[in-house]
Design brief:
Length: 324
């Protein structure tokens, strides 16, 4: 179903297009919501039906100028897909050119949280009001889980009680990105923190295995918008400068996890290149190219790389080549 009832003259065509895309095996939920915005535009502008013209799509694109480049590109991309669908049955229909792709790094420069900042965020979360409620424990657990596992915020909010297997110390991500399921092994400390949270969580309803793991104050599943609003408030409390467009974001905890994992491998003398596929699988990526987006060059990481190169030079290169 679409996120709200469609009202424009193209409502039936838009709904048929959404249904067709879902038949391909994707839920098309977020894209359907973006098409809902376009339907509202058509309704408010009193567009009288197909075919869609260049003037219509240009006006819609102009109305998106207030959005960040990535958001604007996403909204217009699904509209272009709709235009391609409509043009199959109406040759007079206009199909706009795709917008220039905005690199992810350019749209939102990742922010790598320091250990002191993570500690401050967890401390602030544990003091959230009401003091005698589950809320502070929920947010501390959520932030700690994101930092220690690198799972996506959507994956964390979708967790049910049965997805945490205490004995095996692992989480089951039932539906990650591209509808991929995976197991996520947990450290002993993370597993213990989840057990402690569940001890408090089980005092509240619902308690069925398929009920949400993380509860809000109404004993239901946490909502994205509420979590992001609370996180921005925590950033301000901790004195971490925040810009709504550039971050830091809660998603940057995932970037931080990837960098900290790489840093730990360097410190332990591990073969980092051999372990990158492990990290990609753990984070739910198709290949290491997606994972590399998360590997930012922090001062600590650069220092470890330089140290490894220096030792490699002393033990391998210099003995063979002699004194430079």
């Amino acid at each position: 179903m679409s996120p709200w009832k469609l009202h424009s003259s193209l409502a039936d065509e838009i709904q048929n297009f959404i249904h067709l895309r879902r038949l391909s095996g994707t839920d098309y939920q977020s894209q359907a919501q973006l098409l809902g915005y376009f339907d509202r535009f058509l309704f408010e502008q009193q567009i009288s039906g197909p075919p869609l013209t260049r003037e219509i799509t240009d006006d819609y694109l102009l109305g998106l100028s207030h959005l960040a480049p990535r958001s604007r590109s996403n909204r217009f991309c699904v509209v272009r897909q709709l235009c391609q669908y409509l043009a199959r049955n109406n040759p007079r229909g206009y199909v706009p050119e795709p917008l220039k792709v905005i690199p992810s790094q350019g749209a939102h420069p990742p922010y790598i949280y320091g250990h002191s900042e993570i500690h401050a965020l967890l401390t602030a979360a544990s003091k959230l009001p009401p003091s005698n409620s589950l809320r502070p424990h929920t947010y501390r657990t959520l932030l700690g889980l994101l930092y220690s596992t690198g799972i996506r915020i959507g994956e964390a909010l979708a967790l049910n009680q049965e997805d945490f297997q205490e004995a095996e110390q692992r989480l089951y991500i039932a539906q990650g990105k591209f509808r991929k399921a995976r197991w996520v092994p947990l450290s002993a400390s993370t597993s213990q923190a989840l057990q402690q949270y569940l001890h408090k969580r089980f005092k509240m309803r619902p308690r069925s295995p398929d009920s949400p793991l993380l509860l809000n104050q109404r004993s239901s599943r946490l909502h994205h918008s509420t979590v992001h609003h609370t996180f921005q408030s925590l950033l301000r409390q901790c004195g971490i400068h925040h810009n709504p467009l550039t971050g830091p974001r809660i998603h940057d905890l995932r970037h931080t996890f990837a960098v900290q994992r790489l840093l730990a491998w360097y410190r332990d003398g591990q073969d980092v290149n051999a372990r990158l596929p492990w990290l990609a699988t753990y984070m739910g990526h198709v290949d290491i190219h997606s994972t590399q987006v998360y590997l930012q060059a922090t001062p600590e990481l650069i220092a470890q790389v330089n140290r490894r190169f220096y030792h490699h030079y002393l033990h391998r290169v210099k003995p063979q080549g002699g004194t430079p």
